[in-house]
Every structure is written in C-alpha cells, then in structure tokens.
DMT family transporter
Amino acid sequence: MPYKTGVKLVLLAALLWSLNGLLIRQIHDAGTWAVLFWRSAGMIPVLLAVIWWRSGGVITPLRRVGWSGVVGGIGLVLAFGGAIFAFQATTVANAVFLFSASPFLAALLGWLILRETVRPATWAAIALAGIGMFLMVREGLAAGAMAGNVAALLSALGFASFTIALRWGRLADMLPAVVLGGLFSMLAAGVVLAVEGQTLWAPWRDIAISMAMGAGVLATGMALYTAGSRVIPAAELTLLSMVEVLLAPLWVFLALRETASAGTLAGGAVLMTAVAFNALSGARRRAPAPVAGVPM
C-alpha cells in the first residue's frame, strides 16, 4: 500500500471516530450500560467480517490472542464504558482531551509492569501532560463535571491497559482483542443492568444510534486505521490520530453550540502539546506502530 493511501485511511478513521461524542449527544434515554451493550452489538459483526476477510476465518485469530487478548479485552470494558459516561457527564472537549492522556498512562504502566524503558523526553511529556490534566480536572470540579472527568481518565487508563496487554502478548493485530473487548462489554453491561434491576431495552432510536455508532464509526474506523497503520511510522500515527481530538469538539459546537471553557481549552492545549512533543521527539526511533489511535 502506498504511504499516501495509508495516510488517507488513518485520517478517515480519525474523522469517523471524532463523531462519537456528537452521536452520543443524540441519545436521550438510554444510560451508559445500555449504550455500551448496543454499541458493542453493532461493532462485533463488522469486526468479525473484517477478520474473516483478512484471515479466512475467525476462530483461529481469536484463539491466537491468548490470555493477553483476554486481559486487553477486559481493559476495553473500562475504556468503552468510561468513555460513554464521560461524553454524557462532561463536555466532549473535556472528554477527548483527557482520552489523549492514554499513551502516557501506557508508558507508565509499561515501566511498572513490563519494565520498559521510558525516554527522558517522554518523562518530560508526561509531566507536561499532568499539568494539562490538572487544569482540566480543576475546571471540571468547579463546573460540577468531576464525575465525567474521572470517567474520562479511567477510560484512558482502560485503553492504556489494553495497549500494555498487547505488548505483553506481542500481538500485532488488535482486532481480535477488540472483539473480545466488545463481548466482555456486552456481558458486563448485561450483568450490571440485571443487578440494578434495569433492562437493556431502550427507545428504538437510541438503540439504532448506538448500533450504528458501533458498526459505522468504531468498527469501520478500526478497519481503516489498522490497514493504514501498516505503512505509517509510529510517531506520525500519533500525530494523525490527534485529528480526532481536534474535530470532536468542533462537531458538537457546529451542531449543538456546545462550547468548551477557558480552563478546558488551556489544559487541552497543554496536553496536546505534550502529545505532539512526545511523538516528534520519538520520530527517529524504530518503534512498533501504536494502538493509541483506537477510539473510546
């Protein structure tokens, strides 16, 4: 695949993922767990179709991920569920900016669990990102959106756990592990709702939006991103994925006139600077393509 084609595919994936916040804003009655269930139900068939098309089957790729895929899939339950709640409880800008802290959390987990070496430039970027997160979380506390900010950070932590699990298992293909994450998400949602005495059923409009989001935004974006990432260096993938973070607040502003506070914009600018600095400082290093572009 030519490099330019890869760039177009990754940018298209980021464009699709940036619609998540706007689509969740269109869901009025379904709660976090119901949305998680139906979004996963829409995502899984598309991913299985892509896996079958690439591999000629689905059972062998799913078995190949092993325990690392299971651990990563469990991490995705926190990542997906936390992201949905964050979009519902705080501004889209706040949520997506905090999601972008995931690579730094992955670096810290890799250092603690896998004994991976963290570059001095990455430590500096982590410190800078911490300042940006502090500005946004402080703003959220003042605005009464602390729960949404915490959920966004937990979502970033969940995806960082997914990333570390893939590194631990040396898995090059993330799609089978994401399928497991979707299955575990449906199971977790069903259990939580049953314990709370609630039902999975929601207005058909909310179910349709959730399933369309899973199939048309998440799964299709993942297929495009996975294909394009094969010909793009890791640092460039990180920078291209920032398009999702920049576009997501724009869509809700244009459609719903939802604006971000000064604290959110300031903290987000600091955090995105840290992400860009870390990517550019590692541009000359030979590193595997990150999975940090997967959406929440």
In short: The two ends are 27 Å apart (CA to CA). Residues 286-290 have pLDDT under 50 and may be disordered. The chain has one domain: 3-281.
